[in-house]
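Hi V.,

You were right to ask for the full record rather than a summary. Here it is.
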Amino acid sequence: MATDYSKFSNMSPFELKDELIRLASSKSERTMLNAGRGNPNFLATLPRAAFFLFGQFALAESRLSLSYLSPWLGGTVRVAGIEGRFDSFMSTHQGLEEARFLSGALSYVRDQMGLPADEFLLEMVEGILGCYYPAPPRMLSLSEKIVGQYVLREMVGGHVPLEDTDFFATEGGTAAMAYVFHSMKQNGLIKKGDKVALGMPIFSPYIEIPELEEYGLEVVEIQADINLNWQYPESELDKLRDPEVKIFFCVNPSNPASVKMDDRSLEKIADIVKERPELVILTDDVYGTFADDFRSIYAICPHNTILVYSFSKYFGSTGWRLGVIGMHKDNVLDKAIANFPQEVKDTLEKRYITLTPDVSDLKFIDRLVADSRAVALNHTAGLSTPQQVQMVMFSLFALMDQEGRYKTVLKSLVRRRQEALYRELAATEGHDANAVDYYTLIDLENVSRRLYGDKFAAWMLEKASAGELLFRIADETGIVLLPASGFGAKRPAGRVSLANLNEVQYIAIGRSLRKMAEEYYVLFQKEQS
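Predicted structure:
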């Protein structure tokens, strides 16, 4: 009896993958190839090595106090003389690349950024030891400046000064998403029935969260067009002119299409914001570091934009859960709250009165922090301090890589994998200057047309829905792809992550998919004859 795959149609692609994995791994004589998830199989080693070596220095600093009581006991770190002790510790490990990196990092922080070396070392030592609550809860003070410098260099290229942006360290980009949705609701910035625009296709939680009962938002789809290399047509962006659209959520570069917004789209959005200065934009820019000459929406509309960035993909650190929310100190959300009717302000004052005697001065980004811990636990809010130290190490690693060697290697890696995949499919993709190539969408119609012409492509679209085809691919070849429909794409396609397998495995995927296409073509010819 044939399996009824329709029962899986409403599942999130990330939950559906478990069923696909079950099918793909059901035959012991073959290797299952999971190209579904975006967790990379590469990672940045030097900033991790620096983290572990710095931990040894931090322990030595702690043992300068109270160790007379027990060899297992340490005490409060002494700031006096800490820079000299750091130099001495690193000189004893000068043969290690991570020691040279840490010495250079201190020099960069002191000489390039103008931050006090002893305060930086104290913050890092106490942070990596995790001996205090995060203070300030939003983000450690010098860590915010260093991480902020990295994020703004990569996302806006200096168009927004560091001192104009506040950052909140979060448990990855996923926590950032959850916090923004929650705090916007709690502060009356979105209400049930409000319209929110989504740049589609998009990371599926952005589709699923608005539909939850507690939000009940009406989604306005801003659909990218495959015929425009997955850019947004002007007619789609014009939907943002609707005064009932409260916020525009987008992933840039996109997921799953994996292209950055072109200059035309950015300029169009900037023009719309001039007409609608109250429009709020959330841009999730996690893949921006893989793009050439990337420019975030935050660069052109900083007062209207919430910037979300995650370290997970570029540094291979999904398990660390490292992300930030960035907001301009002069932003439309704070202005909207300030202009609320008095009865709304009174309600919000009751919510936040335990934090400050003047709730009207409480910025939205600080409300995010408080809401992340149900307000009452604001005093113990914040990302764990060892996580923040690792985030600083990643940021300094990128800031000090003046020649961009790490970035060049990663870009080359994912692009070689894409070329290998499509070469075996005999459907070579043309170069797109806006393509990021972290993912690729194997479009059923386009690939079928390139292989065997228009008639076969039309037949394939009629014969096999993409959802059923992905189940057959998993069952017959052991390959796991995610359905593009789960990300809001209107065309039948499968998302392939180009980050989590090796080149030879993408060659195997391309060959297997080509073999399936040949089998379908044989069936097509029989039916035609």
